[in-house]
Structures are given as C-alpha cells and as structure tokens.
Amino acid sequence: VCATDNYAAGKLAAQKMGELIGGQGEIAVMSHHQLGETSKNRVDGFTDEIIENYPDITIVDVSYEPVSEDDLSISEKINTVLETYPDLKGYFGTNEVMSVGILEVLKEQENQNIKVIGFDLGEVQAEAIRSGLEAGTVSQNPYGMGYATTVAAVRAILDMENNSFIDAGYTWIDQNNIDLEENAKYLYE
C-alpha cells in the first residue's frame, strides 16, 4: 500500500490548529465518510492530539458528510454548528470537499474569525489560503504517491522486496509557502 499516514497527518492538523487559536477555545471537525479508513484516521489523529496536548481546546462537534437524502447537507451541518457554537474558533475539514464546504459557508456569512484548516489542496483552497480565509492545509503528496507506486510496481515485477506500507508523505501549506515551486506538486488540478 502506498498512501499517506493519515493519523499522523491528522495530528499535524491539530498541532497547527492549537497554534493558530492560541491553545484554547472551541473547535469543530467536518469529515468525509464516517466509516472510511482515511476519514477515521484523520479524525482520530486530530482528536487524539487535541486531547493529549491541548487541554484548553474543546472539540464541540464532529460531523460527517451525508449518507442519505434525509441527512442534512454539508452546508446545513456547518451552519448548525456555527449557530450552536457562536464562539467557535476553528474548523478542520478532513478532505478537499469538506474544506471547501466550510469555506463556502464562512464566505456566505462573511465570517473571517474562524481559523480553517483543510486537508488536500484544490484550487478553491489555494485561493482561500492566499486570501487568508483558510489558514492552511495538510496536503497529501499525489506526485509522491504515483512515483512510489511506480517504483513498488517495478520492484514487484523484478521479484524485489517491498515494504507492506509506503508512506507517500504530506506537508503543511499556508500563505508562507503555497507559491514555492517545490509545493506545486501538492496542488490538485
């Protein structure tokens, strides 16, 4: 398997959130597939890091994308959290779709007080980071995944040993480094 260590990446997102909100306050998580391994690992890494190292931060809500037509939409869930917790300081979106959903709601409400940390890096997120609406994102390395998978495939064809898990890596991207040439490979286009 060539993938991201999603648990560790979730922990990094929590560390950045802790720094951004000064180690105290209420935060929320908007996550993709509740039963998916990537979602579970990102949420677990994030929540474990907050619980272990940020005693003055409270995760007030963890919501998941809708699974049926009867569920609230992503934006409805985010709006409900914002109405229920008016002092919310931060929001973590566990993938590009969830991150963009948070950004769209905050933009509609003209709310720039909440620190948004995303996951992955699409065009909407890149613009939000440049404008300051999104504080930053933990981005997987799609180039590294493809490269490492190709190397592993060639090694398998040649009957060479492979590790059972190959970590393709991830990085933190914010206004300070989004336009660096070496980070262009993290952008999902």
The fraction of residues in strands falls at: 15-25%
- Any idea what the shape is? globular
Give the termini distance in whole angstroms: 24 Å
Tally of individual helices: 6
Order of helices and strands: EHEHEHEHEHEHEE
Fraction of helical residues: 40-55%
What does this entry look like structurally?
There is one protein chain. The protein is an alpha/beta fold and 189 residues long. It has six helices and eight strands; from the N terminus they run βαβαβαβαβαβαββ. The chain has helices at 6-20, 37-53, 74-84, 96-108, 123-131, 142-157; strands at residues 2-3, 25-31, 57-64, 88-93, 115-119, 136-140, 166-167, 170-174. The strands form two sheets. It has a six-stranded mixed sheet, sandwiched between helices. The model has no long low-confidence stretch (mean pLDDT 94).
Q: Features of this protein?
A:
alpha/beta; globular; six-stranded mixed beta sheet; 189 residues; 43% helix; 8 strands; two-stranded parallel ribbon
Summarize the structure.
The chain has 189 residues and is an alpha/beta fold. Helices cover 43% and strands 21% of the residues. The protein contains 6 helices and 8 strands, in the order βαβαβαβαβαβαββ.
Protein topology:
Elements: E1 2-3, H1 6-20, E2 25-31, H2 37-53, E3 57-64, H3 74-84, E4 88-93, H4 96-108, E5 115-119, H5 123-131, E6 136-140, H6 142-157, E7 166-167, E8 170-174
Parallel strand pairs: 1-7, 2-3, 2-4, 4-5, 5-6
Antiparallel strand pairs: 6-8
